[in-house]
Design goal:
The complex is a heterodimer of chains A (about 190) and B (about 290). Chain A has eleven helices and no strands. Chain A has two domains: about 10-100, Fumarate Reductase Iron-sulfur Protein, Chain B, domain 2 (Orthogonal Bundle), CATH 1.10.1060; about 110-185, no CATH class. With about 190 residues, chain A is mainly α. Helices cover about 55% and strands about 0% of the residues of chain A. Chain A has helices at about 10-20, 35, 50-55, 60-65, 70, 75-80, 90-100, 110-125, 130-140, 150-160, 170-185. With about 290 residues, chain B is an alpha/beta fold. Chain B folds into two domains: about 1-120, Up-down Bundle (Glutathione S-transferase Yfyf (Class Pi), Chain A, domain 2); about 135-285, Rossmann fold (3-Layer(aba) Sandwich), CATH 3.40.50.11810. Chain B contains 16 helices and eight strands. The longest helix of chain B is centred in the N-terminal third of the chain and has 17 residues, at about 50-70. The two termini of chain B are about 30 Å apart. The mean pLDDT of chain B is about 95. Classes of the chains: A mainly alpha (about 190), B alpha/beta (about 290). At the A-B interface, helix 6, helix 7, helix 8, helix 9 and helix 10 of A face helix 3, helix 4, helix 6 and helix 11 of B.
C-alpha cells in the first residue's frame, strides 16, 4: 500500500490557505456532501471533496491544474451543507487569490474566467460601476471569440437591455484611492 | 418606512425593469427609498476572487455613505449585491483584524453597521403579508407561478439570516398573499450559473435547462425571480436551450416586483414588462393586461 507522508512541505499550501481565509482544510473527513450538491461538479475533473483531500495532502499541481477553482459558481451550497462547517467557497476564494496575485502559476484549463474577473475590476476601477456591455464585448475580443452570444445582441438591444455607454459613479475617485491603498498593503502590482 | 437604496450596477443597466417595478411597488405601499449618494459597485463575483480585503472594502464604501446620510438600513434588490454586502458586514463583525484594515483604507471609515436587506425581507418582515393582501387591485386567477430564489437569498445562512435555506417560502407566501397560486418544485435554490454567462455560457445553458424543465414539469405558466442575474440567465437563453435540447419552453421570467405591480394595478410600461426577452403576452392575455 502507498504510504502517505505528511511533511512540512506538504502542509505548506493548507497553512497558506488557513492564513489567508481562516479555514482549516484538515477538518474535512470526506463525507462528499459538497460534491453531491455541487451544480458544477459535472464540469470538474477534481470534485470539491477531492480538492479538499488534495489540499490536505499538499497536492498543489492537482488542485490548480484541475481548474476546479474557476469552474466553481460560488453558489454556496457546499458551505451550507458541510457538517464540519468549512467555508469551502472561501477556501476556493483563497486559492483564486493565490493565482490572481501571481503567487502561484499553473496551467489553467479555464483562462477566460480569471480574465473576466480582471477585466471586470479594471472597468469598475475606471467607472466605479460595472460596464456590462463593454465587459462582454472586450472579453469576447480578448478570448478571440468575438461572435460569442451574437444571437442575444438583437433581442437585448430591441428590449432595451443593453446600455451601450458606461455610467460613471460619483464615488469613483474614492474607490480608486481605496484600491490603491489595498494594493499598497497587499504589495500587488 | 424609509430605507437607503442601493440599485447596483445591473439595475442601472440591463435590469432597469427590476428597478422600475421595485420603485413603483414601494411608492404604492408607502415605502420611501433614497438612493445612496455616490454608490459604487459591490465587487460582485470578481473582488472576492482577487482579495478578501477588497471584497469587504467595496461594499463598505457604499454602506459608509448610507451611514453618513443617517440610515441604519439599506435595501439592495440584486442578490449578488445584497449577499456581498451582508457578507461584508458579517466578516467585519467577526474579524477584528479585517475591520482594522478596512477602517484604514476607507476614508471616513465604516464603524457603525448599516443593516442590509433584500426587498423580500422588507415586504415580508416590515410591510407584512396582511397589508400586501389588502392593497390588491387586480386578480390573476389560474396563473401558476414557480418562485425561483437562486443561491444567495438564503445561502449561506450565517450571511443571509433569512428564510429556510434549502426550501425557502418567503416569495411564495408573499405572492400567495396577493392571490397568486404558487407551485411546489425542487429547483427553487439551484444555481443558474451566475457570471459564467460571460465566460462559460454552455454551463448556464446546461443549468437553466434543468431549472426550466423542472418548472415546466409542475405546470408553471411563469417563473418569478428576485435577482437580475437569475432573470437574465433564465430568460435570455431560452432560444439557445431550444436549439441545444430541441425543446421550447417560452416561459416568461418576471421579477416578483413586476407581478406585484400588475396586481396593484400598474401599467405594463411602468413595470418594464416590454423588456422581458420571452414575451409575457401569452401568459397574461386572459387578464387584459398587455
Amino acid at each position: 500500500m502507498m504510504k502517505i507522508q505528511l511533511t512540512k512541505e506538504s502542509r505548506k499550501l493548507s497553512r497558506e490557505i488557513q492564513a489567508l481565509t481562516g479555514e482549516n482544510v484538515n477538518e474535512c473527513y470526506q463525507c462528499r456532501k459538497c460534491s453531491v450538491g455541487c451544480p458544477a461538479a459535472y464540469e470538474m475533473s477534481l470534485k470539491p471533496h477531492e480538492m479538499m483531500r488534495a489540499l490536505q495532502l499538499g497536492m498543489e499541481n492537482e488542485v490548480f491544474q484541475s481548474g476546479i477553482i474557476w469552474a466553481c459558481l460560488s453558489c454556496e451550497t457546499c458551505n451550507t451543507r458541510c457538517p464540519q462547517d468549512i467555508n469551502i467557497v472561501r477556501v476556493i476564494d483563497g486559492l483564486r487569490e493565490l493565482v490572481m496575485s501571481g503567487r502561484v502559476d499553473y496551467f489553467n484549463p479555464y483562462p477566460e474566467i480569471p480574465a473576466m474577473h480582471r477585466l471586470f475590476l479594471k472597468l469598475v476601477e475606471r467607472y466605479g460601476r460595472t460596464y456590462e456591455t463593454g465587459l462582454a464585448f472586450i472579453l469576447n475580443l480578448k478570448m478571440v471569440d468575438p461572435f460569442k452570444d451574437i444571437d442575444l445582441v438583437w433581442p437585448m438591444l430591441t428590449k432595451r437591455r443593453l446600455k451601450l455607454l458606461p455610467q460613471k459613479s460619483g464615488g469613483v475617485k474614492e474607490l480608486r484611492r481605496v484600491v490603491a491603498k489595498i494594493r499598497a498593503i497587499e504589495g500587488e502590482s | 418606512m424609509r430605507y437607503a437604496y442601493f440599485p447596483g450596477c445591473t439595475l442601472s443597466a440591463s435590469a432597469q425593469d427590476y428597478d422600475m417595478s421595485f420603485r413603483w411597488v414601494c411608492r404604492y405601499l408607502g415605502i420611501e427609498l433614497q438612493e445612496v449618494r455616490d454608490w459604487v459597485c459591490c465587487g460582485a463575483c470578481s473582488a472576492r476572487a482577487v482579495s478578501r480585503l477588497l471584497s469587504v472594502a467595496m461594499p463598505a464604501i457604499t454602506l459608509s455613505h448610507a451611514k453618513e446620510e443617517g440610515f441604519d438600513q439599506l435595501v439592495a434588490p440584486c442578490l449578488i449585491s445584497s449577499s456581498r454586502m451582508k457578507a461584508a458586514n458579517v466578516e467585519l463583525e467577526t474579524d477584528t483584524d479585517l475591520r482594522k484594515k478596512v477602517n484604514e483604507v476607507l476614508e471616513g471609515g465604516y464603524r457603525e453597521t448599516v443593516k442590509v436587506l433584500h426587498p423580500l425581507e422588507v415586504f415580508l418582515n416590515d410591510v407584512g403579508l396582511d397589508f400586501l393582501g389588502e392593497k390588491v387591485e387586480k386578480r390573476l386567477p389560474g396563473l401558476k407561478v414557480a418562485c425561483y430564489y437562486g443561491c444567495n437569498l438564503t445561502r449561506p445562512p450565517r450571511v443571509s439570516r433569512f428564510d429556510n435555506t434549502e426550501y425557502p417560502m418567503s416569495m411564495d407566501h408573499m405572492l400567495q398573499s396577493v392571490g397568486l397560486e404558487t407551485l411546489d418544485w425542487a429547483y427553487k435554490t439551484e444555481c443558474c450559473g451566475v457570471s459564467m454567462t460571460l465566460t462559460r455560457a454552455d454551463m448556464v445553458v446546461h443549468l437553466t435547462h434543468k431549472i426550466l424543465t423542472a418548472a415546466k414539469e409542475v405546470g408553471a405558466d411563469v417563473i418569478a425571480v428576485c435577482c437580475p442575474l437569475c432573470q437574465a440567465n433564465l430568460d435570455m437563453r431560452q432560444n439557445q436551450i431550444a436549439e441545444k435540447y430541441g425543446e421550447r419552453f417560452d416561459i416568461p421570467v418576471f421579477y416578483f416586483t413586476q407581478l406585484l405591480g400588475i396586481i396593484y394595478g400598474a401599467y405594463s410600461g411602468e413595470l418594464g414588462l416590454n423588456r422581458l426577452i420571452v414575451s409575457p403576452q401569452k401568459a397574461l392575455e386572459n387578464y387584459g393586461i398587455l
